[in-house]
Amino acid sequence: MTTVADGPTGTGDASGPAKYPNRFRASGVQARHLRAHVLVAAWLGLALLAAAVQETMPVARWLSVHMFLLGAVTTAVLIWSEHFAVALLHARIPDQRWSTARLVTANLAVAGLLLGVWTATAVLTAVSAASLVAAAGAHLVMLVRLGRGALGGRLKPIVSYYRAATAALIAGAVLGWMLSSGGAGGPGRYAGLRLAHLHVTLLGWIGLPVLGTLFMLWPTVLGVRMKDRTTTVSRWVLWLTGSGLLVAAAALALGRRLPAAAGVALYAAGAALAVHLLVRTVRGSRPVSAAAAWMLATATCWLLIAVAADLARLAARPLAEAQAAIDALLPVLLIGFVAQILIGALTYLLPVVLSSGPGDRATVRALLERGWLPRLAALNTGVALAALPLPDPAATTGMLLAALAGAAFLTLAVPVLVRSGRKASPDAGAAGASRRPALWGTAAGVVLTVLAVLVANSGGDTGDPAVASAAGSGAATATRTIEVTLADMRIRPARLDVAAGTALRLKVTNADVQRHDLKVEDGPSTPMLGKGDSHTLDLGTVTEDREAWCTLPGHRAAGMTMDIVVKDTAKNGTAEHADGHDGHSTTASNGLDLAADFSDGWQARDAGLAPAPGGTVHEVELHAAHTTVEVAPGVKQQMWTFGGTAPGPTLRGKVGDVFEITLVNDDTGMGHGIDFHAGALAPDKPMRTLDPGEQLVYRFRAEKAGAWLYHCSTSPMLQHMGNGMYGAVIIDPPGLAKVDHEYVLVSSELYTGTPGSTAQVTKMRRNTPDAWLFNGIANQYTQRPLKAKAGERARFWVVAAGPSDGIAFHIVGTVFDTVYKEGAYALKSGDAGGAQVLDLAPAQGGFVETTFPEAGHYPFVDHDMRHAEAGAHGMVEVSE
């Protein structure tokens, strides 16, 4: 075995470790290890307690994971990375006061983060995240300074793993704060950032130091010499895993799935290279600790399995689905890899650092290895049952087995810590005994405090309809049951408008691949719902505004909220308008003043249509996103758009041209697809719904001429089209003559209000729009007329986008001498007849041509006068 002066095992031969180096004991490091491992044990115990109540309190699952990773594992990594760095670099032991300060700051920051995220206290969360970053930054500075002027050694490159891991902790803390505070944006970005957070935390902060330490610890545990290639291989492994993790995390944060998969592939290659060397290190000699050796080996196998599965799922699935699939790998990573590597390492290292000699070390090791084979089997069987796609009873049994194995280790580790605490003072038992109550009193206080908070905030379906009714002003006047859907990090509808005194029931269904719940302010909450699960909440009589949200940490901040608004309270600023229009030309029944001025800086959409571009292949990139648009004079509304406009960009080509449309879903709130009526192809793949962050190339050949509609293909299409996701494709008929002006006008309806809200969707279903539009804005061409000159010939392309109403397009003061509708001429210039209207049903298109006889103002309208007087009105200003 290669000797490492002052290393974790001291010096000695292959028969086993020598005494713990005296300079560590003399400096007080041994006592610090004891205190630190009391913290580790306390965090592990709290994590087990939280895991035990996760079915009754959904947030407990998040707490258990973070108590384990941020609490127990972070404490252990901070301690051991410092200790190993000192040993491997042959450096001076850092000032233990500063080391203790860093450790205390990190643990207080973790506690503050857990409490801040749980209680949605933004200030506490931000301060705690900053404190954790500061503690990690100080740890990184210490690791860098240790290398300056140190003698170094054969395993000096391993310290670089600890530095890279600490940088990953800083990145993970920042990403975690963004997720918990809502800084991640909507669900599309949330999924990517959450995956980035998981990768830098599990594969970076934990995976990198584990891989690095195994180069040294594995031969030591086996009692064999280190391979000559270890130094070279360790450098290659760090380069592959570190660069791969950087690429994967950056790509995930940007929502780029395939580059992220490439990064994970690099990481997997590095991990496989490390395992190959470790396998070659194995010999037939008896390990120093068989229990530790088997646990370290099995944990490393689980890491390879998890990384391979992660790579496969990132390469094959959209980010939202990959996120859920990787969530299924958490038992493998958290228990099979992290927990097992921690238990295996502590099984070997605790006897080394907490014992006073070979005999004492053997006694401690025998205690920690008691029943190790059944514990190993139970833990790994539990991981397999929890990770495999088996029915719930199997997964529950698996988690129970793994928890029992972890609890069994704790019951063995606690006596070791107590025994070592008694020996902490070399003089007598008095000092150690006096220290023991403080240590265990603190740990017990932490446990009891967290348990008290768990009980106080356990939530549950506490809403009592009788109490709610008693709190109201009177008996309910009506009973309403509303369907509520949880999906895509959103609650739909996002707003409920109800009359005061309504007895309200919410039928809540989770349509997402992730688990969610719904908690009503001062009212009941659902249990945690898996995909397809439903639960009905009875709110009783509703008399005042309330909010509802998903209680999972970060989900509320990311936008999973719903407002319940009582219509006759002062808080309600909007009301449903479902009665149509009152017939006045400038003011609709909903209060839109179509004669008002547009906002400063507003510009009308250019209705001019450019000639078809050259070439036979047209490549266009369309981004689906939410965009705030001024849809009527002084009225701004969020719209769902292609290319940032509603309608989307107009595309133009000729018969036989090929269109390659790259659709990118930048919408952070929902999935979108696209359907081009101008192409003929099976809709299964090109028209599928893209999750946030996804993209596809939609390729079609325009075989037929016409004015075609394109629109979002995602259900409910009424809402997607009604909120602006439509546009026009113009395919010129062969031999189309040139004219002086070409315009394109897409007619549609306007439904004001929060997109997807109950009030807005009700108007859509009743077909009672607030206005009718040309090119997405009511009355825009009345205030910004189109321009032409007397005697000039103009062609007006018209597409009826609907989603429910068609159009009767008419220009006052002119007669159409050419009418082209749905791929055929109904009238050509030179024919004896003329036309007055281009009539189009929803989704139809065509064009008309006319020549303006003299200067003047020529209104164009939808000749359904209800439409014309409510926004479907414009003007052509003809000059001499």
Strand order of the largest sheet: 18-17-20-25-22-23
Please tally the β strands and state the result.
Answer: 27
- Helix/strand-derived category reads alpha+beta
Task: Indicate the percent of residues in helices.
Answer: 40-55%
Largest sheet: 6 strands, mixed
* CA-based gyration radius: 34 Å
Q: Residue-averaged pLDDT, rounded?
A: 80
Taken as a percent bin, the fraction of beta residues is 15-25%
Number of helices, where a helix is a run of at least 4 consecutive DSSP H or I residues: 21
Shape: elongated
Alpha-carbon distance between the termini? Answer: 99 Å
Unreliable spans? 1-24, 425-477, 569-589
3D structure, described in words:
It is a single chain. α2 (29-52) runs antiparallel to α3. The chain has 880 residues and is an alpha+beta fold. The model is unreliable at 1-24, 425-477 and 569-589 (pLDDT under 50). The protein is elongated and about 115 Å long. It contains 21 helices and 27 strands. A 6-stranded mixed β-sheet has the order 18-17-20-25-22-23, with no helix packed on it. A 5-stranded mixed β-sheet has the order 19-27-26-21-24. It has a 4-stranded mixed β-sheet with strand order 2-1-4-6.
